Request: fold
Amino acid sequence: MRIDGSQCGFGQKDEVVRRPAKAKYISPEGKTWTGRGKPPRVFKALVEAGHKMEEFLI
Reply:
């Protein structure tokens, strides 16, 4: 008895629906950031100016 790839689940691709991540932070200028990846310059500047990221949570 021989088993092919389709019987093992290979070749059947389920489509994964990717949605954009929801914004987690918003700056006073209205710019948003999800909190993923490198922070945008506006948020970096605000933190360096003494603000805390918690101040900008949505």
